[in-house]
Amino acid sequence: MNEEYQQKINGYKEDIQQNIDQEAVLQTIKNCKKTFVQAEDYPLSYMEFLYDQMQFIQKRWWILQGCLLAVLWIFLNDAADIYEMQRLMGAGACLFAIFLVPEIWKNRRNQAMEIEGAAYYSLRQVCMARILLFGFMDLLIVTAFAVSVAFTVRVSAQMFAVNFMIPFNVTGAICFRFLYCKRSESEYLAAAGCFLFMILWVFIISREEIYCKISGAVWCAALILSIMYLIYVVKRSQSFYGKIYEV
């Protein structure tokens, strides 16, 4: 049986070799070299590269984030007291950050990192481009949400920073901390870690005896530390991103 298949394979190889037009092959190689040289002479600028990366990002995650904040705004308007508003904002901030996970992990999930690593821009630049695009769009969405909440729900800037920005920063840091984890299931671990933190945060906010004992200076320090740690894990994820795979 194996000999029969081997004979068929050898016959197929002979047919292919007989039908190959060597001149056409050489012409194709010549054209490919010419196209490659032209592309090297006029590489994409980084802004053009960012625009191209925008095309690969699934816009549904930004739409879902916007819908989440719209629903959160509705619930804030109907909240019975300030403590319920604090719990809603904390849970909403964590869920808002969790929507980052599917898109940032997309290249690892689809096993496309080797292809991206062979591109003109490095894998670190590809990943940073997506982070910049997501960060910029999320900043616009959160800014619009903060302005609408400030004028309609009458939430102070301090309350918004403590109850939305701190959990958002910490949840985002958890996502990026697991991003440079070599475990294949790191995407699910990141989501699980974010949900656990959301439960812990809502528990702390729900306990009035704990929440009221934390001074404004402590909350301000926590906000600054959360921003610094988020920046740290993002930079570290970039430093270690090239070590996750082997080219």
Automatic annotation (TrEMBL):
Superkingdom field: Bacteria
Key words of the record? Membrane, Transmembrane, Transmembrane helix
For whether the record's keyword set contains Cell wall biogenesis/degradation, the answer is no
Is the keyword Amino-acid biosynthesis assigned to this protein? no
Membrane-crossing ranges are: 60-76, 88-105, 131-153, 159-180, 187-204, 216-234
- The molecule here is called ABC-2 family transporter protein
Q: Which organism is it from?
A: Anaerostipes hadrus
